[in-house]
Every structure is written in structure tokens, then in C-alpha cells.
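Collaboration report, partner site 2.

Our partner group contributed sequences for two proteins of shared interest, and the home lab folded both. The records are reproduced in the order in which they were received, starting with the first partner submission.
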Amino acid sequence: MSSSTLLYAILGISVVSYLFDQALDYLNLKAQRKDIPAEVAGFYNQEKYVKSLDYHRDQTNFGFLTAAFGFVLSLLMLLFGGFGMLDQGLRLYLDNDISLAL
């Protein structure tokens, strides 16, 4: 298997994984109900429940942004050989393979 084939396989897996995670988060966000489920109605009041849902929505929206930033950064590192350059630079300072992997 050539190195370019391996690179494209890694890129493909990364893209599919990212899109799948984002689609699941989006579907979970859209499936939220504003009414309190009967199982927890006695323990939770409506105002706190709606506030919790709003917080979860904001947190998920921020997660979309941070995930996109991390994904783009990882793709750029893969495409332009950033991980190889990082490995070469760290090998000047680290001799132990375990500490290099960390």
C-alpha cells in the first residue's frame, strides 16, 4: 500500500467520523423536548428544565465550532505533513520512544 493511499484512507475515515459525530449532535439537539418528561416531573420544575435545555443547546453550538476548528487543524496537519515535521523536531530533544509518543 502506498503512502498516498494510506493518507487518503486516513483522511476519508477522519471526514466520515467528523460528519457522523456532527450529524448525531445536530439530531440530538433537534430532538430536545421543551416539556418535562413524566418520569422527572416531580423532581424538576419547568423553568429549571428549560434553562438546562438552553444551556445544553448553547454548549452544543459551541461544540460545533470547536470541533470544526480541531477538524480543520487536523486535516491541515495531515495534508501538509505537520505531524512528520513535529516528529522530526521532537526527536532532536527526546530519545525515548514512549515520551516521544506522549
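Second partner submission, folded after the first:
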Amino acid sequence: MAAHNRVILIGNLTRDVELRKTPGGTSVADVGLAINERRKEQSGEWVDSVTFVDVTLWGRTAEVASEFLHKGSSLFVEGRLRLDTWETDGQKRSKMRVICEKMQMIGGRGDEGGRSSGSSSMARNVVAAPGDYYESDGAAHADDFETPGQRDSQPTGAGAGYNDDDIPF
């Protein structure tokens, strides 16, 4: 039987990230993510709704999140669903959560809760899943983040062929 368990979310943190350690020394953080949705009802009226999702970050991902993110920060998360079950006072309880495998911080360093504060907005890529794309000595470095100067350059219009009269614009 085939199975596929993959979740991709973009939302805003509902609270500051609180980093803690397991008895074995692994970093872990539980964060809340608010995902806003705006849709039009049959009456033509716009309705806003929000979905709250609990996300667990592990290892270097949790450490980076606690260092750079705060309540209101925009975040892209990719991971898998996990159902936690437990019993409290004889009642069975359960909760669905996302186990983060990759994340991307959205917004510039000066952004407050995803709102621009005059600085240019850029996405900072941090992929910190064990054995995945991110390898580090445990410290964040300036070159871990994409800056506008590191992107591929775009044509400026000064090269050959840009003064062609056949171009319709």
C-alpha cells in the first residue's frame, strides 16, 4: 500500500520561539503557526478565517528559529503530519502536529512580524534537516543567507539585441 505524508505551510508565528533541550542534548522547539485565508462567499462577501497549526522543530532548525524568529514572523514550513495521543484523567486525547523537516524564513532582517520596516525584503533560506541540504559547524554565518548581491544577475537591456525594432514593447 502506497503512502505519502507531506505538508507545506506558509504562515505567521503565534508566539516567540522557546528553545529547549532533550535529556540527550538535542534542541527542540514547539511553535504555533497561523495560516490566514480569505475567500468570497456565495453572497459576494469576503470572509477571513485563520487555521492554527502546531509545528515541532528539531536540531539546528530549532536553534536557528529561536535565534532569528519572533511572534508574527512569516515562515515557510515543509514537513510531515504526526498524530500525538495521550491520556489525561482517564480521557483519551489526541492532537495533530507538523514535524518540520525544512523551513524558510520569509522577510528581511528588519521586518517586524512580516511588515517591512523600510529595509529591502528578502527570503532567507535555512534548510536544517538532519542529513539534508544544510551542513554547518553549529553556528549561523552571514553566508548561510541569500543576499541580493548573491543572486544571478538579470539582463539590463544594454547588450546586443535589446535595441531590436521588432520587439513589440
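Feedback sent to the partner group on the second submission included the following. The CA atoms of residues 102 and 132 lie 9 Å apart. Confidence is low (pLDDT under 50) at residues 113-154.
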